[in-house]
Amino acid sequence: MICIMENYELVLLLDPKTKDSDRKNLTNDLEKILEDGVVSKDEIWLMDLLYELSGVKTNDKAYFYSYYLKLNTSKIDDIKKFFLYNNIVLKYDIFRRTKSQVSFEFEKLQKDLNAIIASWEERKLWQKIYFFSDLKNSKYINWKSIPMLKKYITRFGNIKPRKYTNNWVNIQKKLRKEIIRARNFWLIEFIK
Question: How far apart, in Å, do the first and last CA atoms of the chain sit?
Fold first, then answer.
């Protein structure tokens, strides 16, 4: 049987009410399943969510963990079985990444993008944003680049069309996919 190695990203949202030891045990058990497939790990820690989880008003925070993986496609089923009956994990998502996509640390990426946005001259409402249309900046298209993704959303919550972003078609598709991914993790609003 031929084993195909693919690049993946696994994102975990963990219950904020659990103990540190329980979270540590969960991540240790997960890393045993992943074995040597972990390329990098980003512990984002506690983050505020824009929406309440499962309708509970006090439950608007979660611990985020992000794993960049290089795994056989057969390991994905093992990962899904591991999360099947787990109360600590509120939500998880595993998705394929291309070889060209870079793994970022959340905190460092936020600081870099906020510095870039602060360096821009004051923009008016109708001015276009050309950040991702430059190919050297396309590496920043990631669900973790929240400040920049928010610039590509209209004041009503829609994704800005190519007419305003001046992006190539493939970059616009990647951007749209990452905005939707950040919305699914409750980090960007669906509707303003």
Answer: 50
Q: Which fold has domain 5-97?
A: Alpha-Beta Plaits (3.30.70)
- Sheet of 38-48, strand order: 38-48, 61-72, 5-14, 89-97
Radius of gyration of the chain (CA): 18
Which tens digit of pLDDT belongs to each residue from 43-84? Answer: 988 888 887 766 556 678 899 999 999 998 888 899 999 998
**Phi, psi of 149, deg, nearest 5:** -65, -35
Q: Which CATH class is domain 121-184?
A: few secondary structures
CA 48 – CA 59 distance, rounded (Å): 10
Question: pLDDT digits over 117-154, tens only?
Answer: 888 766 655 667 778 888 888 889 999 999 999 999 98
- Tokens representing 192 are 């303003």
Report yes or no on whether pTM surpasses 0.70: yes
